[in-house]
Design a protein that fits this description.
This protein has about 450 residues and is mainly α. It contains 18 helices and no strands. It is globular and about 60 Å long. Bound molecules: phenylalanine (PHE).
Length: about 450
């Protein structure tokens, strides 16, 4: 593109921003809620496998494609394809996924923002499951509050993006993530010392394979994609801001490991408390919002630390949302040659429009069901379990077959060439293992085969 492209300023900046995209509500909200709803340890194991075997190669492929093309995810595939074939559908499907994810993600972030306000006002501390559930359901079932907080979230996202890629994203992530990490450790320690906490650890680490079905496997696979922000061009977009000498496999590996650790920590912070206080692990999307305040209620000084926890969770959510919105913004700005500011406004308007349906899914739109899912769950299902994995198949196919091994290896090897076996392993994973695995899990999970 002829327009000047902003980029990441340092190796650490790249790592921080990529990690900022991956770590978010996915770790703190979605991993615990899905693990609870799908039987615990067995599900966690599948998610781990999917991350290692499918997630890592797709992530490396995406970043490499992005860095080679140095443009948005729709343009990237057109630019790199040796012959004209419609690989740009990957970018289009990714853009659609970004809208769908933002529509419900901004609402979960809205709950976090609202909980910051509630934590400051001091109305949250209760270890009683009924009270905790009532506080949450009062918030989500009130259309005015649900919409108000969603719009606050979207305004914040817009504000930060206008400050520019490197400054905005790096600055925030670098400083605050380590503190969130420490807080999760502290919550975990508190949770583990509660009477009855052991049942939570058993739930997390002793697999009961009878709970695993093809549909559960698809949810675990979708979670792996969602967690690593892959399958939709986020990493193509971020890769396009990577420096030429950045070691891509090492960066991807570090991001994946750190992300897994945060997910596990969140699990350890939440499940012992779930069992100790008598919450239900299968509570659904509300799980974190009702459990965490209970842990803090049982901690000296908990009221203050809880404010910090929700603020930091909000920051983590921001990092992820910035990367989500970056996809449509880059696509709109670079495909239609409009300013980033205008692209941002269009994207946010679209997200707000779609977001209304997700925001009101506990009130006005609760009965608007498609495939038995309300708009919130539907947006989540369509993006995580269909668009992202399908995108993953296509990205692997593109990198390993269409773009070609030589081009892929040449780009990956710039700066710091990885070992030979890394190339060989990546080729096998991208050509055969990942696409096949994703394909089978999708067909089986959707009951099509
Ligand atoms: N990985 C982010 C999280 O876990 C969500 C996300 C998905 C971000 C897809 C970008 C793209 O919260």
């Amino acid at each position: 593109m002829s327009a000047q492209r902003d980029g990441f300023s340092s190796t650490f900046g790249v790592l921080a921003a990529t990690l900022g995209s991956a770590v978010g509500l996915g770790n703190i909200w979605k991993v615990p809620y899905l693990t609870g709803a799908n039987g615990g340890a067995g599900f966690l194991l599948l998610y781990l496998l999917a991350t290692l075997v499918v997630g890592l190669p797709v992530m490396i492929a995406e970043i490499t494609i992005g860095r080679a093309a140095r443009t948005d995810p729709v343009g990237a595939f057109t630019k790199l394809a040796p012959v004209r074939r419609p690989w740009w559908v990957i970018g289009v499907s990714g853009t659609l996924a970004a809208f769908l994810i933002m529509a419900f993600y901004s609402e979960v972030a809205a709950w976090v923002f609202a909980y910051v306000a509630k934590a400051v006002a001091g109305g949250l501390l209760s270890t009683d499951p009924k009270t905790a559930a009532a506080i949450f359901s009062k918030l989500v079932s009130d259309p005015a509050q649900a919409l108000f907080w969603q719009w606050v979230v979207l305004l914040c996202v817009g504000g930060v993006i206008l400050m520019g890629v490197s400054k905005g994203i790096e600055a925030v992530t670098k400083k605050l993530m380590p503190i969130l990490f420490l807080l999760l450790v502290a919550i975990g320690i508190r949770g583990l010392t509660l009477p009855g906490a052991v049942a939570g650890l058993e739930f997390l680490f002793r697999p009961d394979f009878s709970k695993l079905t093809p549909a559960v496997a698809l949810v675990a696979l979708g979670l792996a994609f969602f967690k690593l922000s892959i399958g939709m061009g986020t990493m193509v977009t971020y890769g396009s801001y990577f420096r030429a000498d950045q070691d891509i496999p090492a960066t991807a590996l570090r991001v994946m490991l750190a992300d897994l650790v945060v997910s596990l920590l969140a699990g350890i912070a939440i499940f012992p408390a779930v069992f100790a206080f008598g919450f239900k692990p299968e509570a659904g999307p509300s799980l974190v919002f009702i459990t965490i305040p209970a842990v803090f209620a049982s901690m000296p000084g908990g009221a203050i630390v809880m404010v910090a926890f929700f603020v930091l969770t909000a920051v983590a959510a921001m990092g992820a949302m910035l990367s989500l919105v970056e996809v449509p913004v880059a696509v709109l700005a670079e495909r239609f040659e409009i300013s980033r500011r205008r692209a941002l406004l269009i994207a946010l308007a679209g997200i707000a429009g779609l977001g209304v349906f997700a925001a009101l899914a506990q009130s006005r739109t609760a009965d608007w069901k498609l495939f038995g899912l309300n708009p919130f769950d539907l947006f989540d299902f369509l993006s995580s379990n269909i668009l992202l994995p399908a995108g993953g198949i296509l990205i692997c196919a593109f990198a390993a077959w269409e773009w070609g091994r030589q081009n892929f290896e040449a780009e990956l090897g710039r700066g710091s060439p990885p070992r030979k076996w890394v190339f060989a392993a990546l080729t096998v994973l991208m050509r055969y293992v990942s696409p096949l695995l994703i394909g089978v899990v999708m067909l089986k999970g959707l009951g099509l085969f």
